[in-house]
Design a protein that fits this description.
five-stranded antiparallel β-sheet, 48% strand, 557 residues
């Protein structure tokens, strides 16, 4: 028989693999009746600049400290965070008083601030006593230690996942040290008829210094029967300091007979500073009310921030010239709108302020507000220093000031005025509008293309991402993801800006789990813009390259 259906061609050269999708007939009688085709490589996200991180996990030296399940780790830095890393020792166990070493490649995270670690979802987990986690960056040789000395999971069910902050290091002047913080959440259910819910409610807090991770609002300190109409329930979330809060992502699992929930607002109070943030909602989280969404993103609309200390990241760039180096300590005074600092000594130690080098220091100071000016000078032994740029960032608020030195810095004070000021991530997030994104998911016209598995997506843009979203209910078809069918789903979230990538995957459940995805088209309900993410590949453990997850990038329309 001359007819031939080609799924794809895979070209392998060394460690590089390139897929050329086809999913079409070569036939004089079938499909478009063509016998020749030009195949283009599958679109892949551009390869990022990766850094190697060495992770040492130290199990405590106490009785029954070990465990026989993988653990999940998330690394956080001041320039980004990793996705979930599932780590499993070669022996299959994390043994008592043993160090297990792992190496991962990630996009650079900057200065590491915290680690989130917990067991990877095993129902038979009996507990694990973790001593500490040590992370080394192979690129810049930095080492950061995160102490735990506590149990995770098992009989300690209240803390199967822990957040560990970087331990103070006397030798690392660039280190950012976060504190553990208690956030008290006042969750106010509306008074509309049927406003209360029996579903399980979860949320994530987002701030200048990252997110809190997923927290289940399990036990209200004010009511035994939580989330009733007109009721305020109080919960506690303990995590690393998030800085200024920007938004909350809140959702429920739609479980129970009375799952629909009308959320009025959430107020968050920092336990140590009594600063308060208000996140209005005034909408249903419901499969049958409003727009049938059970997830909402709430933006901070009101903030009452009391006095606090903040960490400041000070970055200095030395000119790339042979006579640029000061060969001495640098003295810095910062004048803010609310107060000025004492003179800060930035030590040379023979390694800082080298020609062409960028040096970073961190200092904990009373909040300065907007920085008006800085005074720079060398220690008396110095002669001159060719500084090209100085940036000072309030890590808690994200406010950044940039200074440019036009003349050499000498032992005489030089006063610099900021040439640029940029708001922090929290403030930028608060200015974003809610947008409804309509996803048109087209299953290919290929034998066996449909799936009964549960499908998930994560849409990422220049302003953030949607989180992991289950494509549960198609607005166009009751039986979704069938062959040659387009299913439409709606996601509401804060404006993502220019869309950059779309991750799509399924859980491989059901008899007909294999799925051949043609493309996903994302329609921005506010601007009308359409973004196309082609796939034309299997998401399958038995077909194609046997991958269940695809990272799709858009094509220009």
């Amino acid at each position: 028989m001359a007819d031939w259906f080609l799924d794809h061609v895979e070209v392998v050269k060394g460690e590089q693999r390139v897929l050329f999708p086809c999913s079409a007939w070569f036939s004089a009688t079938k499909g478009d009746k063509r016998l020749e085709r030009v195949l283009l490589p599958a679109l892949q996200a551009p390869a990022p600049d990766l850094t190697q991180y060495e992770i040492a996990i130290v199990t405590a030296d106490v009785e029954a400290a070990g465990c026989a399940v993988p653990v999940s780790v998330w690394l956080y830095g001041d320039e980004g965070h990793s996705d979930e890393l599932v780590l499993e020792p070669t022996s299959g166990r994390f043994e008592r008083a043993h160090v297990d070493n792992f190496t991962v490649e990630l996009e650079p995270l900057g200065i590491l601030t915290k680690v989130r670690i917990g067991y990877a979802g095993s129902k038979t987990f009996k507990g694990w006593c973790l001593d500490k986690v040590i992370v080394k960056s192979v690129r810049d040789k930095s080492e950061t230690t995160f102490h735990c000395s506590d149990w995770l999971g098992g009989a300690h069910k209240d803390k199967p996942i822990r957040e560990l902050v970087a331990a103070h290091s006397a030798t690392n002047e660039a280190q950012i040290t976060l504190r553990q913080k208690l956030y008290r959440l006042y969750v106010m259910t509306g008074t509309e008829r049927g406003a209360g819910t029996d579903a399980n409610v979860k949320l994530i807090l987002f701030g200048e210094c990252g997110d809190s991770g997923e927290h289940t609002l399990a036990e209200s300190s004010t009511h035994r029967n939580k989330f009733e109409s007109g009721q305020t329930d109080v919960f506690e979330v303990r995590c690393a300091d998030l800085g200024r809060l920007a938004k909350i992502r809140v959702w429920h699992d739609n479980a129970g007979l009375g799952a629909s929930w009308f959320l009025d607002r959430i107020e968050v109070v920092e336990d140590d500073t009594t600063s308060k943030y208000v996140f209005p909602c005034g909408r249903w989280l419901s499969k049958s009310e409003d727009d049938h969404q059970v997830m909402r993103e709430l933006v901070c609309a009101q903030e009452d921030v009391r006095g606090y200390n903040s960490q400041y990241k000070i970055t200095m760039e030395t000119a790339e010239k042979h006579d640029a180096e000061p060969n001495c300590d640098v003295l810095l005074t910062i004048r803010g709108e609310s107060r000025s600092t004492e003179q800060l000594v930035l030590h040379s130690r023979g390694t800082h302020f080298r020609a062409g080098q960028t040096d970073t220091f961190t200092h904990t100071l009373p909040a300065l507000g907007t920085i008006q000016s800085v005074s720079l000078q060398l220690a008396p032994a110095g002669r001159r220093w060719l500084l090209t740029k100085l940036t000072i960032t309030d890590i808690r608020s994200g406010l950044t000031h940039t200074f440019v030195a036009k003349d050499p810095i000498t032992p005489k004070p030089s006063v610099l005025i900021p040439v640029e000021e940029s708001t922090g991530k929290a403030e930028a997030t608060r200015q974003l509008a809610l947008v409804k994104y309509e996803l048109s998911v087209r299953t290919s016209d290929v034998s066996g293309a449909g799936t009964d598995a549960n499908v998930f997506v994560r849409l990422t843009g220049e302003n953030g991402d949607t989180g992991d979203v289950a494509l549960a209910e198609s607005s166009t078809n009751k039986n979704k993801f069938e062959r040659n069918q387009t299913d439409v789903f709606t996601i509401e979230c804060l404006d993502l800006g220019r869309l950059q990538r779309l991750a799509v995957w399924h859980d491989n459940k059901g008899l007909g789990a294999a799925w051949h995805l043609d493309e996903i088209v994302v329609h921005n309900g506010s601007t009308g813009h359409r973004t196309v993410f082609p796939c034309k590949l299997w998401l399958s453990k038995s077909d194609g390259d046997k991958q269940l997850r695809r990272e799709l990038v858009p094509v220009a329309e």
